[in-house]
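Dear support,

Our group has been running a series of protein-ligand predictions, and this particular one with beta-D-galactopyranose is the one our PI (initials K.S.) wants archived with full inputs and outputs. We had some confusion internally about which version of the output was final, so please treat the block below as the authoritative record. The input we submitted was:
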Amino acid sequence: MADTPGPAHPRPLRLEALAYGGDYNPDQWSEDVWDEDVRLMLEAGVNLVSLPIFSWPQLEPAPGVYEWGWLDRILDKLWAAGIAIDLATATATPPSWLLRAHPEMHPMDAEGHRLEFGSRQVYCPSSPVWHENVARMTRAMAERYGSHPGVVLWHISNEYGDHTSRCWCPESTRHFRRWLQDRYGSLDGLNDAWGVNVWGQRYTSWDHIEAPRKAPGPINPTQLLDFERFSSDAMLQLFQLEVDVLREVTPDLPVTTNFMSMFRDLDYWTFADAEDIVTDDAYPEPADPIAHVGAALNYGLMRSLKGGRPWLLLESSASATSWRDVNVPKAPGKMRVDSLQAVAHGSDAVMFFQWRQARYGQEKFHSSMLGHRGEASRTYRETKALGQELKRLEAVRGTRVRARVGLVVDWDSWWGSSAIESLPSQRLNWARQARAWHRAMHLLGQPVDAVRAGGPFEGYDVVLVPNLYIADEAQAAALTAFTESGGHVVVGPFSGVVDATEKVHDGGAPGPLRGLLGVEVDEQWPHADGVVETVDIAGASHENPAWAEWIEVVPTPPSGATDASPGASGRMGPAATAVIGTYSSGELEGRPAVTRRDAGTGAAWYVSAMLSEEGLSAVFAEVLGGAGLAARTEVDVDFEAVTRSSDDTDFTFALNHGRTPLKIRVPEGALDLVTGERTGATLTLDRYGVAVLQTPRDGIPPFLTLAH
Ligand code: GAL
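Confirmed final output from the archive:
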C-alpha cells in the first residue's frame, strides 16, 4: 500500500541528516549579526533552526499590517546556507493590540484573576477571538512560506500549557458545559455520572455548572476529573485548528508541536495522534545526579507516542536554564551525554533553546549554543564538537529502539489519582508510581517504552501497570489477552478501583482486573507518614513506606483451553494465585502483599504495596527471568545502555552519566561509531563517556553489563 500521509503514515521530515540546531530569535538582534550567526551555525554543523516562535507582534505590528520583510530575508539567508527551517506559526503568544481590543481573551485563574500581558501565552484556550486570529495568522504564514524550499516542518504554537493550561474564565466555563453536554447528552446523564446525590449537588440547568473553583469543602471528584479532561481537550482543539489550516494549505509538510516530556496537564496520546512527528523539550536538572533516569522515562514516552517512530529533541539546554531557583550549569561533557541519551532513545535530532544567548529579557541568563562570549564561549566549543560527532552517528537516523518492556501511561489515572482531596492517601498517585517503577526497571538494564492501558502490547514481553486507578473492561481484556499469549503483566496498587465516572467497581478493586490477577482488595491500608512497614519476598525483607492493601486471594474461573496445560509454574489445571511476597510487619503482618497468577503461557502479578526500590527490583528481576529477559545483577545508576536497530544492524549506545569511569562488557569486535575503532571484550567509558556499538542485528539486542 502507498505510504500516504495520515495517522498511520505520517508525513516524514525532509532532512537527510540527524537534525542539529535550536530556537533562533533573529528579531532580537540587528541584521548585521545574522551573517555571523549563519557562519557560526555552519561551523557548528547546524542544519535546522526553529523560528519565529514568539514573533507575532514583529510580524503583524497592527491589525492586518504585516511586516514580512525581515522574516523573508533571514529565511532566504538560512536556506542559501543549506540550513533548513522548522517554521513556527508564530501563535505562541498574542500581540498586545489583540488583547487590548479583546480583554475577554485574557486567561483567568481559579481565583478569578485575569492574567496580564507582560509575559507569554496570554490567552484563553477557548476564546473564539483567539481561535479566529490563530487561524488567520496560521493561514497567513502557510500561504506566505508554505512553499519556501527551506521549510521542512511546521512548529505549531509552543509548549501548549506551559504557562496557561487551565482557564476558569466565563468563556472556558461555557466551553466546559458544551463539552459536558457532548459527553453526557443530558443533564440526567451528567447528574448520574457525577454522582450528585452525595452532598446534594444535583444540577437542574447546564448554566449552573461551573469550572471547579474554591468551594467550602472537597469538590466533587468527577467534576474535577472532567475539568482535567476538558482542559486537555480544549487545548487539543486549539492545536487541531492550526493542524487543519496547515493540512489544507500545505498538505505535504509535516506538523508538530513541542511537548514537555511527561506533562500532567495534557494527554499527549491524543496530541500525538493529530501530528506527524513527535517533538520534545527536555531539561533534566543538571544538579540532580539521577535526572537521566527520569529523562529515560520521558524519552520512552516520546518514541512510543507514535508507535516507535523516531522523534525529535527540539529543545534542551547547552548548560544552565534560567527558570529554576538555582540554575546550575552543565559540567564539561554533560551536554554531550545528555544529548546523546536522547538520540539513544530514538531521537533523530539534538536541538537547543537557543542558538544565541539573549542579552535582555526573561531568558538572558539561560545558556545557549553560542554564549555571551560568542565563539570563545565554552558552550560554543562543546556545540561544535557535538555537531561533528553527530555526523559520525548518521547511520542511526531512522532506526528504532528495541524495548521488550512497556509501561502503561494513562492520563485518566494520573488525573484521578492526583486529585488533591478525597483519596485514601496523597502519598500514592500514578506519576509517583510510574517514576518509581520505571526507575527500578531501568536499573535492571531494560529500556522501557510507554504503552496505552488498552494496548496494543504486541512486541512486548513485559507490561508494567504501575497504577491504573481508573480501569475498564476493555483494558482488562487487552491485558488478559496479552498474558494468555505469553505476556507478563505486573499491576501496581490502587488499580482497577473506579470506572471512567469515578464510581467504585462492583465488589471494589481491582474491579475488571480481578479475573486476571486472582485477588480482591478488601481495604486500602495506607500508612501514616513516617511509618515504614516491611514486605518479605523470597526471604528478604523490603521497606514499604507508604501504602499497603488487605488483599484476599480468590479462585478465578478457568480462562480458556490454555489453562489446562502446564503454565510457567508447571502446574496443571485452573490457574491459582501464588503468594510471592508477604507483609511482614504492622497490622497486615502475614497477609499477601505480592501475588502471581499464571494465565495461559504468561503471568499476571499484583504488587499491592508501594515497595522500596530494592523490593521492586526483586519482583521485576523475577518477572524478567520468567519472561526470558536479562536483568543486571550489578547496578550502577550512572550506566545506561539502549539499542536502536535497523532491519539488519544494531546500534547499542552505552552511556556513562557520571564522573567516575565505568568498565563494561561489550560484544567483541563491534565498531564503535564514536571512535571508529573495533572493541575488545570490555571498554571503559570515561566521565560522561559514550560509545555507540554497531553490530549485525541479532534476535535480541545486546545486553551490556558492568565488568570488573
Ligand atoms: C521552554 C520554552 C522556550 C524557552 C525554554 C527555556 O519551555 O519553550 O521558549 O523558554 O523553555 O528553558
